[in-house]
Design a protein that fits this description.
Rossmann fold, 2 domains, 5-stranded mixed β-sheet, elongated, binds S-adenosylmethionine
């Protein structure tokens, strides 16, 4: 906390009757923000769907983060903000409060919570504004496909915008899809369903640290209709981690790898996976699931692609940080189509076309 003399010197910034609440939010906020572990916990708290100021934080997030990242003096920072039509006093009030009830402590060094199937009520069904249902993961405090719902988002983001049907029609031989973050299976099953009329061979390789969300989802086909008609195949996949089946002319070979993906990607096994033509990249958000969005992970993913095999990697994130990380990892990066509440998403590729 600043002493009285320093506060007096900052009177122009905080006003003649400085609110210690404004000063504390800024001063403590900036100090905590410098610690990576604390930064992640703050973001987790502020982005929690229960946080009443979540939307407001999202609206002002870039500027709030800039202020928390700043190194300048209070006066210099305030002068900079005034040039942009605001003040440090106003901005400090946009730093959200922290709700202690879910500001949980993590073991040092543990990057992100792993959804734990053994926890009671780890997964639940939520009804979205669109009327569709989706699966909520309690450890991450995040809902899968929270915008327009699982099947609609999977179709818009991973099937239609990638031109999957047209690509499969023109494709000869096996078409390989890596499904990173299988979760409740919406992306994988929507891709299969949307292409089931085609005479095509699909090799689907799914990855997740747990099969618990898929187990949970398979108990709710009434609310999650994208599962209907695939009950037996999903049950077999969960049971044996591999299933092979035919639907009309479509041939499917589906494998499930249960492991921590960043670790698995570094293992010798990764070199043996068939190279993908399409990657359904769908971890939880970078704020909640940072280990899945690092530059080393994306760079390793890029290295595993076959340069002679065009591969697309669509993802729902439109954040500049994610796009820059993809670029630094070696990908070409473009703007993806809108889905639900997001006016744009991101498509990365290993080739410019
Ligand atoms: C948003 S959900 C995926 C939703 C899914 N694609 C669907 O369509 O239902 C993100 C998934 O990423 C998985 N995940 C998060 N961190 C992981 C890690 N380190 N390794 C493997 N999977 C991880 C989570 O367990 C979760 O199932």
């Amino acid at each position: 906390m600043r002493d009285a003399a320093a506060l007096a010197a900052d009177a122009d910034v905080w006003g003649p009757y400085a609110s210690y609440d404004d000063v504390a939010r800024f001063e403590y906020g900036r100090r905590m923000w410098r610690l990576a572990e604390m930064r992640e916990r703050l973001l987790t708290n502020w982005l929690d769907e229960r946080h009443p100021h979540r939307e407001r934080f999202l609206e002002h997030r870039a500027l709030v983060e800039e202020v928390l990242n700043s190194e300048e003096s209070v006066a210099a920072l305030d002068a900079k903000l005034r040039q942009r039509g605001t003040t440090l006093r106003c901005l400090s009030r946009e730093i959200p409060v922290v709700f202690g009830q879910w500001f949980e402590t993590r073991e040092p060094g543990r990057a992100a919570p792993i959804a734990d199937a053994a926890k009671p009520n780890e997964y639940s069904l939520v009804r979205l504004r669109s009327g569709a249902h989706s699966v909520h993961a309690r450890s991450y405090a995040e809902t899968m496909h929270p915008g327009i719902g699982p099947a609609a988002e999977a179709e818009a983001l991973y099937v239609r915008q990638t031109g999957l049907i047209e690509r499969l029609r023109a494709h000869h031989g096996e078409f390989v899809i890596w499904d990173i973050g299988l979760g409740a299976g919406a992306n994988a099953l929507t891709a299969l369903r949307q292409t089931e009329a085609l005479d095509a061979s699909l090799r689907l390789i799914s990855f997740d640290s747990t099969d618990a969300p898929l187990r949970f989802a398979s108990g709710h086909p009434a609310e999650l209709p994208y599962l209907r008609g695939y009950e037996q195949e999903v049950a077999r996949l969960i049971e044996t981690r591999h299933v092979r089946f035919r639907r009309g002319a479509q041939r499917v070979d589906w494998t499930l790898n249960i492991a921590d993906f960043p670790a698995l990607l570094q293992s010798p096994a990764a070199a043996t996976w068939p190279r993908p033509h399409l990657i359904l990249f769908d971890p939880f958000s970078p704020a909640r699931n940072p280990a899945m969005w690092t530059r080393p992970l994306l760079a390793q993913l890029y290295r595993l692609l076959d340069p002679a095999r065009p591969c697309l990697l669509p993802t729902y994130s439109r954040s500049t940080q994610v796009r820059v990380t993809l670029l630094l990892a070696g990908f070409w990066v473009g703007t993806g189509r809108a889905t639900g509440r997001k006016e744009e998403t991101t498509v990365a590729a290993n080739r410019p076309e």
